[in-house]
Amino acid sequence: MNMDKAQKQIIDINMEENRRSEIRKIFDRTPMYNLSALEIDGRKIRVSKNHWVIDFASCNYLGLDLDPEMDDDVSSNIKKWGVHPSWCRLVASPEIYDELERKLAELIGTETTLILPTVTLISIGVIPALMGKSGVMFLDKSAHETMYEAGKIARDSGAELESYKQDDFATLEDLLIKHKNNPRKLIIVDGVYSMTGDYADLPKLVELAKKYDAMVYVDDAHGFGVVGEKPDERNPQGYKGNGVVKYYGMSYDNIIYVGGCSKAYSSLAAFIGCTNEMKKFLEAFATPYDLSGPCPTASLATMLKGLEINEKRGDEYREKLWKLTERAIDGIRKLGFTVINKTGFPIVSVVIGDTDKLIDTANILYEKGILVTVAPFPMVKRGEECHRITLTSANTEQEVDQLIGAFAEIKKYLEK
Ligand SMILES: Cc1ncc(COP(=O)(O)O)c(C=O)c1O
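A: This is the predicted complex of the input protein with pyridoxal-5'-phosphate.
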Protein backbone atom coordinates (compact mmCIF):
# COMPACT_ATOMS: atom_id res chain seq x y z
CA MET A 1 0.00 0.00 0.00
CA ASN A 2 1.35 3.43 -0.92
CA MET A 3 1.63 6.03 1.77
CA ASP A 4 -0.36 9.17 1.02
CA LYS A 5 1.46 12.50 1.17
CA ALA A 6 -0.14 13.59 4.45
CA GLN A 7 0.91 10.41 6.22
CA LYS A 8 4.44 10.57 4.81
CA GLN A 9 4.90 14.17 5.94
CA ILE A 10 3.74 13.39 9.45
CA ILE A 11 6.09 10.45 9.79
CA ASP A 12 9.08 12.15 8.12
CA ILE A 13 8.89 15.35 10.15
CA ASN A 14 8.45 13.50 13.42
CA MET A 15 11.39 11.26 12.57
CA GLU A 16 13.48 14.41 12.14
CA GLU A 17 12.35 16.36 15.15
CA ASN A 18 11.78 13.68 17.81
CA ARG A 19 14.53 11.69 19.47
CA ARG A 20 12.25 8.64 19.47
CA SER A 21 13.33 8.18 15.87
CA GLU A 22 16.38 6.44 17.37
CA ILE A 23 14.08 3.67 18.57
CA ARG A 24 12.33 3.40 15.21
CA LYS A 25 15.67 3.11 13.40
CA ILE A 26 16.68 0.18 15.60
CA PHE A 27 13.63 -1.85 14.47
CA ASP A 28 15.42 -2.67 11.23
CA ARG A 29 18.69 -3.69 12.87
CA THR A 30 17.78 -6.30 15.46
CA PRO A 31 15.32 -9.17 15.70
CA MET A 32 15.03 -8.37 19.43
CA TYR A 33 12.12 -5.91 18.94
CA ASN A 34 8.53 -6.64 17.88
CA LEU A 35 8.86 -10.39 18.07
CA SER A 36 5.91 -12.66 17.45
CA ALA A 37 5.68 -15.29 20.15
CA LEU A 38 4.54 -18.42 18.32
CA GLU A 39 4.51 -20.77 21.28
CA ILE A 40 5.51 -20.68 24.92
CA ASP A 41 6.80 -23.36 27.23
CA GLY A 42 7.35 -22.00 30.73
CA ARG A 43 9.63 -19.01 30.25
CA LYS A 44 10.78 -20.20 26.83
CA ILE A 45 9.29 -18.63 23.73
CA ARG A 46 9.42 -19.97 20.19
CA VAL A 47 9.97 -16.99 17.92
CA SER A 48 10.50 -18.66 14.55
CA LYS A 49 10.33 -22.16 13.09
CA ASN A 50 13.15 -23.55 15.20
CA HIS A 51 14.38 -20.71 17.36
CA TRP A 52 13.51 -20.50 21.05
CA VAL A 53 14.50 -17.71 23.41
CA ILE A 54 14.42 -17.65 27.20
CA ASP A 55 12.29 -14.79 28.39
CA PHE A 56 14.16 -12.28 30.55
CA ALA A 57 11.92 -9.41 29.47
CA SER A 58 8.75 -10.46 31.28
CA CYS A 59 7.63 -8.55 34.36
CA ASN A 60 5.29 -11.37 35.45
CA TYR A 61 7.49 -11.44 38.54
CA LEU A 62 5.53 -14.09 40.46
CA GLY A 63 4.99 -16.31 37.43
CA LEU A 64 1.22 -16.12 37.89
CA ASP A 65 0.73 -15.91 34.12
CA LEU A 66 1.69 -19.58 33.96
CA ASP A 67 -0.05 -20.76 37.12
CA PRO A 68 -2.45 -23.65 36.35
CA GLU A 69 -4.73 -22.58 39.23
CA MET A 70 -5.80 -19.50 37.24
CA ASP A 71 -7.94 -21.25 34.65
CA ASP A 72 -11.02 -22.34 36.60
CA ASP A 73 -11.66 -18.99 38.21
CA VAL A 74 -11.33 -17.12 34.95
CA SER A 75 -13.91 -19.27 33.18
CA SER A 76 -16.38 -19.24 36.08
CA ASN A 77 -16.23 -15.44 36.32
CA ILE A 78 -16.62 -15.07 32.56
CA LYS A 79 -19.68 -17.32 32.72
CA LYS A 80 -21.07 -15.13 35.46
CA TRP A 81 -20.21 -11.67 34.10
CA GLY A 82 -19.51 -12.07 30.37
CA VAL A 83 -16.07 -11.28 28.98
CA HIS A 84 -16.23 -7.54 29.45
CA PRO A 85 -18.43 -5.26 31.52
CA SER A 86 -18.58 -2.37 29.10
CA TRP A 87 -19.98 0.19 31.52
CA CYS A 88 -17.66 2.95 32.56
CA ARG A 89 -17.21 2.52 36.27
CA LEU A 90 -19.23 5.63 37.08
CA VAL A 91 -22.31 3.83 35.77
CA ALA A 92 -21.85 0.33 37.20
CA SER A 93 -19.25 -2.28 38.12
CA PRO A 94 -19.61 -6.05 38.62
CA GLU A 95 -19.48 -6.77 42.36
CA ILE A 96 -16.18 -8.60 41.90
CA TYR A 97 -14.68 -5.08 42.00
CA ASP A 98 -15.89 -4.55 45.58
CA GLU A 99 -14.30 -7.79 46.69
CA LEU A 100 -11.04 -6.97 44.95
CA GLU A 101 -10.86 -3.41 46.20
CA ARG A 102 -11.49 -4.60 49.76
CA LYS A 103 -8.85 -7.33 49.53
CA LEU A 104 -6.28 -4.98 48.01
CA ALA A 105 -6.92 -2.42 50.75
CA GLU A 106 -6.49 -5.15 53.39
CA LEU A 107 -3.21 -6.25 51.82
CA ILE A 108 -1.59 -2.84 51.47
CA GLY A 109 -3.18 -1.33 54.60
CA THR A 110 -5.09 1.64 53.16
CA GLU A 111 -8.66 2.60 54.02
CA THR A 112 -9.76 1.70 50.51
CA THR A 113 -8.59 1.22 46.92
CA LEU A 114 -9.95 2.21 43.53
CA ILE A 115 -9.32 -0.05 40.54
CA LEU A 116 -8.77 1.23 36.99
CA PRO A 117 -7.29 -0.64 34.02
CA THR A 118 -3.68 0.59 34.01
CA VAL A 119 -1.17 2.65 35.93
CA THR A 120 -0.83 4.92 32.90
CA LEU A 121 -4.57 5.64 32.88
CA ILE A 122 -4.46 6.28 36.62
CA SER A 123 -1.62 8.79 36.23
CA ILE A 124 -3.19 10.69 33.37
CA GLY A 125 -6.52 10.76 35.22
CA VAL A 126 -5.45 11.28 38.81
CA ILE A 127 -2.50 13.68 38.56
CA PRO A 128 -4.44 16.35 36.60
CA ALA A 129 -7.46 15.80 38.87
CA LEU A 130 -5.36 16.47 41.97
CA MET A 131 -3.60 19.48 40.49
CA GLY A 132 -6.62 21.31 39.07
CA LYS A 133 -5.92 24.72 37.58
CA SER A 134 -3.01 25.86 39.71
CA GLY A 135 -1.38 23.02 41.68
CA VAL A 136 2.34 22.35 41.46
CA MET A 137 4.06 19.06 40.67
CA PHE A 138 7.60 18.13 41.69
CA LEU A 139 8.56 15.42 39.25
CA ASP A 140 11.53 13.18 39.84
CA LYS A 141 13.45 13.23 36.55
CA SER A 142 13.97 9.45 36.72
CA ALA A 143 10.28 8.77 37.28
CA HIS A 144 8.40 6.87 34.61
CA GLU A 145 7.66 8.74 31.37
CA THR A 146 3.91 8.18 31.79
CA MET A 147 3.87 10.49 34.82
CA TYR A 148 5.68 13.15 32.83
CA GLU A 149 2.94 12.82 30.21
CA ALA A 150 0.34 13.14 32.99
CA GLY A 151 2.18 16.18 34.32
CA LYS A 152 2.04 17.82 30.91
CA ILE A 153 -1.73 17.29 30.76
CA ALA A 154 -2.07 18.92 34.20
CA ARG A 155 0.19 21.77 33.05
CA ASP A 156 -2.12 22.37 30.13
CA SER A 157 -4.88 23.20 32.64
CA GLY A 158 -2.66 25.68 34.46
CA ALA A 159 -0.71 23.58 36.99
CA GLU A 160 3.05 24.05 37.28
CA LEU A 161 5.55 21.30 36.59
CA GLU A 162 8.91 21.42 38.37
CA SER A 163 11.50 18.68 38.25
CA TYR A 164 14.46 17.53 40.31
CA LYS A 165 17.01 14.74 40.09
CA GLN A 166 16.26 11.47 41.89
CA ASP A 167 17.30 11.79 45.56
CA ASP A 168 18.38 15.42 45.22
CA PHE A 169 16.47 16.38 48.34
CA ALA A 170 18.15 19.78 48.67
CA THR A 171 16.76 20.88 45.29
CA LEU A 172 13.40 19.34 46.08
CA GLU A 173 13.26 21.27 49.36
CA ASP A 174 14.19 24.53 47.59
CA LEU A 175 11.35 23.93 45.16
CA LEU A 176 8.93 23.16 47.98
CA ILE A 177 9.96 26.39 49.68
CA LYS A 178 9.52 28.31 46.43
CA HIS A 179 5.95 27.03 46.20
CA LYS A 180 5.16 26.90 49.91
CA ASN A 181 2.05 29.04 49.57
CA ASN A 182 0.53 26.78 46.92
CA PRO A 183 -1.97 24.54 48.73
CA ARG A 184 -1.86 21.77 46.08
CA LYS A 185 1.60 20.25 45.99
CA LEU A 186 2.42 16.81 44.62
CA ILE A 187 5.81 15.09 44.63
CA ILE A 188 5.84 12.42 41.91
CA VAL A 189 8.10 9.37 42.10
CA ASP A 190 8.40 5.71 41.12
CA GLY A 191 8.12 3.35 44.11
CA VAL A 192 10.63 1.06 42.40
CA TYR A 193 12.43 2.64 39.44
CA SER A 194 11.80 0.82 36.22
CA MET A 195 15.35 0.81 34.84
CA THR A 196 17.47 0.55 37.99
CA GLY A 197 15.35 -1.31 40.55
CA ASP A 198 16.12 1.52 43.01
CA TYR A 199 13.55 2.19 45.71
CA ALA A 200 12.25 5.71 46.26
CA ASP A 201 13.54 7.06 49.56
CA LEU A 202 10.04 7.39 50.92
CA PRO A 203 10.99 8.19 54.52
CA LYS A 204 12.90 11.26 53.33
CA LEU A 205 10.26 12.24 50.75
CA VAL A 206 7.41 11.97 53.23
CA GLU A 207 9.38 13.93 55.83
CA LEU A 208 9.68 16.79 53.31
CA ALA A 209 6.08 16.37 52.21
CA LYS A 210 4.86 16.70 55.80
CA LYS A 211 7.07 19.73 56.45
CA TYR A 212 5.58 21.58 53.46
CA ASP A 213 2.07 20.07 53.39
CA ALA A 214 2.58 18.21 50.14
CA MET A 215 1.52 14.76 48.99
CA VAL A 216 3.77 12.09 47.50
CA TYR A 217 2.36 10.23 44.49
CA VAL A 218 4.04 6.82 44.42
CA ASP A 219 3.85 4.80 41.19
CA ASP A 220 4.57 1.30 42.47
CA ALA A 221 3.93 -0.47 39.15
CA HIS A 222 6.93 -2.72 39.77
CA GLY A 223 7.04 -2.86 43.55
CA PHE A 224 3.50 -4.07 44.22
CA GLY A 225 3.54 -7.86 44.52
CA VAL A 226 7.31 -7.97 44.83
CA VAL A 227 8.50 -5.84 47.74
CA GLY A 228 6.70 -5.87 51.03
CA GLU A 229 6.69 -5.58 54.77
CA LYS A 230 9.32 -6.51 57.35
CA PRO A 231 12.33 -7.28 55.14
CA ASP A 232 14.81 -9.69 56.72
CA GLU A 233 17.71 -11.87 55.66
CA ARG A 234 15.56 -14.61 54.19
CA ASN A 235 13.40 -12.25 52.15
CA PRO A 236 15.47 -9.06 51.90
CA GLN A 237 12.71 -7.31 49.95
CA GLY A 238 10.12 -8.16 52.57
CA TYR A 239 7.01 -10.31 52.82
CA LYS A 240 3.49 -10.39 51.35
CA GLY A 241 4.43 -8.21 48.37
CA ASN A 242 2.32 -5.42 49.80
CA GLY A 243 4.35 -2.64 48.24
CA VAL A 244 7.06 -0.15 48.88
CA VAL A 245 5.29 1.83 51.60
CA LYS A 246 4.94 -1.32 53.73
CA TYR A 247 8.55 -2.22 52.90
CA TYR A 248 9.57 0.88 54.83
CA GLY A 249 7.02 0.15 57.56
CA MET A 250 5.40 3.54 56.98
CA SER A 251 1.81 4.78 57.22
CA TYR A 252 0.04 6.27 54.18
CA ASP A 253 -0.04 9.79 55.61
CA ASN A 254 0.77 12.27 52.81
CA ILE A 255 0.96 9.41 50.30
CA ILE A 256 -1.21 8.54 47.34
CA TYR A 257 -0.21 5.00 46.42
CA VAL A 258 -0.64 3.48 42.97
CA GLY A 259 -0.15 -0.26 42.57
CA GLY A 260 0.13 -2.00 39.22
CA CYS A 261 -1.22 -5.50 38.60
CA SER A 262 0.04 -5.99 35.05
CA LYS A 263 3.46 -7.02 36.32
CA ALA A 264 3.57 -9.19 39.46
CA TYR A 265 -0.12 -10.11 39.15
CA SER A 266 -0.22 -10.77 35.41
CA SER A 267 -3.54 -8.91 35.14
CA LEU A 268 -4.62 -5.85 33.22
CA ALA A 269 -5.52 -3.77 36.26
CA ALA A 270 -4.10 -1.15 38.59
CA PHE A 271 -5.34 0.61 41.69
CA ILE A 272 -5.04 3.66 43.87
CA GLY A 273 -4.65 3.09 47.61
CA CYS A 274 -6.27 6.01 49.39
CA THR A 275 -8.82 7.25 51.92
CA ASN A 276 -12.58 6.93 51.39
CA GLU A 277 -12.84 10.70 50.88
CA MET A 278 -10.10 10.67 48.21
CA LYS A 279 -11.82 7.75 46.47
CA LYS A 280 -15.12 9.64 46.23
CA PHE A 281 -13.26 12.70 44.96
CA LEU A 282 -11.45 10.67 42.27
CA GLU A 283 -14.67 8.93 41.23
CA ALA A 284 -16.00 12.33 40.29
CA PHE A 285 -12.82 13.99 39.02
CA ALA A 286 -10.68 11.31 37.35
CA THR A 287 -11.72 10.81 33.73
CA PRO A 288 -10.70 7.12 33.43
CA TYR A 289 -13.34 6.33 36.08
CA ASP A 290 -16.20 8.15 34.44
CA LEU A 291 -15.34 8.27 30.74
CA SER A 292 -13.27 5.21 29.94
CA GLY A 293 -13.88 1.45 29.85
CA PRO A 294 -13.18 -0.96 32.74
CA CYS A 295 -10.89 -3.98 33.10
CA PRO A 296 -11.88 -7.16 31.23
CA THR A 297 -13.50 -9.77 33.45
CA ALA A 298 -10.60 -12.18 32.94
CA SER A 299 -8.19 -9.63 34.43
CA LEU A 300 -10.35 -9.10 37.50
CA ALA A 301 -10.61 -12.87 37.94
CA THR A 302 -6.85 -13.45 37.58
CA MET A 303 -6.26 -10.64 40.04
CA LEU A 304 -8.58 -12.19 42.60
CA LYS A 305 -7.02 -15.61 42.15
CA GLY A 306 -3.57 -14.02 42.24
CA LEU A 307 -4.29 -12.55 45.66
CA GLU A 308 -5.31 -16.01 46.89
CA ILE A 309 -2.15 -17.60 45.48
CA ASN A 310 -0.08 -14.76 46.94
CA GLU A 311 -1.44 -15.57 50.38
CA LYS A 312 -0.60 -19.26 49.98
CA ARG A 313 2.68 -19.24 48.09
CA GLY A 314 3.71 -15.66 47.38
CA ASP A 315 6.61 -15.55 49.83
CA GLU A 316 7.97 -18.81 48.47
CA TYR A 317 7.89 -17.36 44.94
CA ARG A 318 9.57 -14.17 46.11
CA GLU A 319 12.31 -16.09 47.91
CA LYS A 320 13.05 -17.93 44.67
CA LEU A 321 13.00 -14.64 42.79
CA TRP A 322 15.66 -13.03 45.05
CA LYS A 323 17.89 -16.05 44.66
CA LEU A 324 17.62 -16.11 40.86
CA THR A 325 18.23 -12.36 40.74
CA GLU A 326 21.29 -12.63 42.95
CA ARG A 327 22.64 -15.43 40.78
CA ALA A 328 22.20 -13.32 37.62
CA ILE A 329 23.74 -10.18 39.14
CA ASP A 330 26.74 -12.05 40.59
CA GLY A 331 27.38 -14.03 37.41
CA ILE A 332 27.24 -11.03 35.08
CA ARG A 333 29.24 -8.78 37.43
CA LYS A 334 31.95 -11.44 37.68
CA LEU A 335 32.36 -11.17 33.90
CA GLY A 336 33.29 -7.52 34.44
CA PHE A 337 30.08 -5.79 33.30
CA THR A 338 28.61 -2.71 34.93
CA VAL A 339 25.36 -4.00 36.37
CA ILE A 340 22.91 -1.41 37.66
CA ASN A 341 21.19 -2.89 40.68
CA LYS A 342 21.75 -1.94 44.29
CA THR A 343 18.60 -3.36 45.82
CA GLY A 344 18.39 -6.97 44.62
CA PHE A 345 15.09 -6.18 42.86
CA PRO A 346 14.59 -8.38 39.77
CA ILE A 347 15.37 -5.55 37.32
CA VAL A 348 18.98 -5.94 36.31
CA SER A 349 20.38 -3.48 33.76
CA VAL A 350 23.68 -4.33 32.09
CA VAL A 351 25.32 -1.22 30.67
CA ILE A 352 26.72 -1.44 27.14
CA GLY A 353 26.97 2.33 26.68
CA ASP A 354 26.79 2.79 22.92
CA THR A 355 23.95 2.27 20.44
CA ASP A 356 25.86 0.29 17.80
CA LYS A 357 27.35 -2.04 20.39
CA LEU A 358 23.97 -2.33 22.03
CA ILE A 359 22.47 -3.63 18.81
CA ASP A 360 25.38 -5.98 18.06
CA THR A 361 25.19 -7.41 21.56
CA ALA A 362 21.39 -7.68 21.37
CA ASN A 363 21.90 -9.80 18.27
CA ILE A 364 24.38 -12.03 20.12
CA LEU A 365 21.87 -12.51 22.95
CA TYR A 366 19.17 -13.39 20.45
CA GLU A 367 21.41 -15.91 18.70
CA LYS A 368 22.24 -17.46 22.07
CA GLY A 369 18.54 -17.83 22.82
CA ILE A 370 18.03 -14.95 25.24
CA LEU A 371 15.31 -12.31 25.18
CA VAL A 372 15.88 -9.07 27.12
CA THR A 373 14.56 -5.53 26.86
CA VAL A 374 17.00 -3.58 24.74
CA ALA A 375 17.15 -0.03 26.09
CA PRO A 376 18.76 2.53 23.79
CA PHE A 377 18.70 6.33 24.11
CA PRO A 378 16.15 7.96 24.69
CA MET A 379 14.80 5.17 26.93
CA VAL A 380 17.94 5.79 28.98
CA LYS A 381 20.56 8.55 29.00
CA ARG A 382 23.28 8.51 26.35
CA GLY A 383 26.22 6.47 27.57
CA GLU A 384 23.88 4.30 29.68
CA GLU A 385 22.44 2.23 26.82
CA CYS A 386 21.76 -1.14 28.37
CA HIS A 387 20.12 -4.53 28.25
CA ARG A 388 17.42 -4.68 30.89
CA ILE A 389 16.97 -8.15 32.31
CA THR A 390 13.87 -8.89 34.34
CA LEU A 391 13.56 -12.13 36.24
CA THR A 392 10.49 -13.98 37.37
CA SER A 393 9.99 -16.86 39.76
CA ALA A 394 9.06 -18.97 36.73
CA ASN A 395 12.63 -18.76 35.46
CA THR A 396 15.06 -21.51 36.44
CA GLU A 397 18.68 -21.61 37.61
CA GLN A 398 19.65 -23.29 34.32
CA GLU A 399 18.06 -20.43 32.39
CA VAL A 400 19.96 -17.89 34.46
CA ASP A 401 23.19 -19.80 33.77
CA GLN A 402 22.41 -19.69 30.05
CA LEU A 403 21.90 -15.92 30.39
CA ILE A 404 25.30 -15.57 32.06
CA GLY A 405 26.84 -17.74 29.34
CA ALA A 406 25.42 -15.42 26.67
CA PHE A 407 26.96 -12.43 28.43
CA ALA A 408 30.30 -14.27 28.43
CA GLU A 409 30.00 -14.36 24.61
CA ILE A 410 29.25 -10.64 24.61
CA LYS A 411 32.34 -10.07 26.69
CA LYS A 412 34.47 -11.84 24.08
CA TYR A 413 32.91 -9.74 21.33
CA LEU A 414 33.52 -6.48 23.23
CA GLU A 415 37.14 -7.38 23.89
CA LYS A 416 37.86 -8.12 20.24
C1 LIG B 1 7.11 2.71 36.74
C2 LIG B 1 6.05 2.40 35.74
N1 LIG B 1 4.89 3.04 35.79
C3 LIG B 1 3.90 2.77 34.91
C4 LIG B 1 4.03 1.83 33.93
C5 LIG B 1 2.88 1.55 33.01
O1 LIG B 1 2.05 0.65 33.64
P1 LIG B 1 0.69 0.19 32.94
O2 LIG B 1 1.07 -0.81 31.93
O3 LIG B 1 -0.13 -0.37 34.06
O4 LIG B 1 0.09 1.42 32.35
C6 LIG B 1 5.22 1.12 33.84
C7 LIG B 1 5.34 0.10 32.78
O5 LIG B 1 6.26 -0.50 32.46
C8 LIG B 1 6.26 1.41 34.74
O6 LIG B 1 7.44 0.78 34.64
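The chain has two domains: 19-65+314-415, 85-295. DSSP finds 14 helices and 15 strands in the chain.
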